[in-house]
Amino acid sequence: MSKKSKPTYKIRNWAKYNEALVNRGNLTFWISDELIDEWRHDNPDGLQGRPFFYSDLAIETLLTIRELYRLPYRTTEGFGRWIFDLMRFDLPIPDYTSLCKRAAKLCIDIVVSKKKGKIDVVLDSTGLKVYGDGEWKMRTHGKSKRRTWRKLHLMIDPESQEIIADELTTNGVHDTKPVSKMLDKVENPVEKFYGDGIFDTWDTYDELAKRNIDPVIPPQKNAVLTQHGNCKEPPLLRDEAIRGIRKHGRRGWKRRIGYHRRSLVETTIYRMKTIFGAHLKNRLLPNQKTESRIRCKILNHFTRLGLPKYD
């Protein structure tokens, strides 16, 4: 019996989407008056220690350029000097050590489009390598001890496909741990939570129940009912999912409940790794968190430029 061929989709807005992809590389720098006025740090009196010379906005601007063009710290400093010389701005550029030290404590705000009412969220994670052997060496000689990565947790809005919350952790943190912290970052009330089978834990269900969020999570294949059908207590959503899978099959249940919206976060992860790579340039976790947060902010800007629409 031959397998069914996968459905093909045609992009309806190719001209607009193509222009959006081109505009991602548009090397046009516009320095606002706000950036010029706030380039130097406004140090209040009475604080101990050496005052900052550059504002957080100045540091974030150069770090954004660094992530966008995958530059080292020293090259970022030189690139900033070239831009200001070209635009004839008489402003100093932070040196590479200042960029590295300030990045560890920089607070980055991910810009998300404002929406009214409830939204759905989709959560997944991916690994970003810090240092270690490449794939060729792994296949040929096996892994070595000096090989580690970080786990990037992304929560997106499936309607706009923007990243609304992120969390970077060590590779030993379970995917369910950052759920509560990431939901706290969402400004709109959440109606549905989409996640894969790794979120099929009672801690996750309890956290979603406290927030009145409906879980769209496939139970494990060996899952059993917790409450009997004749129980007077309100039915558990996990039990309802198990009954739906028994009735329609796992694939049919996923189609009926709309579970496949979860794949949109995998598409977001693919976009991020395509644009920025699968590595983190920094070695310290605080700097890595700033690095990943800036990537999310840039990717949201790219998303707002335009996305493909399919038939």
Features:
311 residues, alpha/beta, 5-stranded mixed sheet, 12% strand
Describe this structure in words.
- The chain is built from 11 helices and 5 strands; from the N terminus they run αααααβαββαβαβααα.
- The chain has helices spanning about 15-25, 35, 55-70, 75-85, 95-105, 135-140, 180-185, 200-210, 235-255, 265-275, 285-305, and strands at about 120-130, 150-155, 165-170, 190-195, 215.
- The chain has a 5-stranded mixed β-sheet, sandwiched between helices.
- Helix 8 (about 200-210) links the parallel strand 4 (about 190-195) and strand 5 (about 215).
- The radius of gyration is 23 Å and the shape is elongated.
- The protein starts with 13 loop residues before the first helix and ends in a 6-residue tail after the last helix.
Summarize, please.
By secondary structure, this protein is α/β, with parallel strands linked by helices.
Report the uncertain regions. Answer: none
Principal-axis shape equals elongated
Distance between the termini: 29 Å
* Helical amount: 40-55%
Helix vs. strand class:
alpha/beta
| Biggest β-sheet description | 5 strands, mixed
Per DSSP E runs of 2 or more residues, the count of β-strands stands at 5
- SS field, number of helical segments: 11
Radius of gyration: 23 Å
- The percentage of residues in β strands lies in 5-15%
Q: What order do the helices and strands follow? A: HHHHHEHEEHEHEHHH
> Which strand order spans the largest sheet, edge to edge or round the barrel?
3-2-1-4-5
| Overall pLDDT | 86
Helices and strands in order, then pairings?
Elements (H helix, E strand, L loop, with lengths): L13 H10 L9 H5 L18 H13 L4 H15 L8 H8 L15 E13 L3 H7 L6 E9 L6 E8 L8 H6 L5 E5 L7 H9 L3 E3 L20 H21 L5 H14 L8 H21 L6
Parallel strand pairs: 1-4, 4-5
Antiparallel strand pairs: 1-2, 2-3
Helix pairs in contact: 3-4, 3-5, 3-11, 4-5
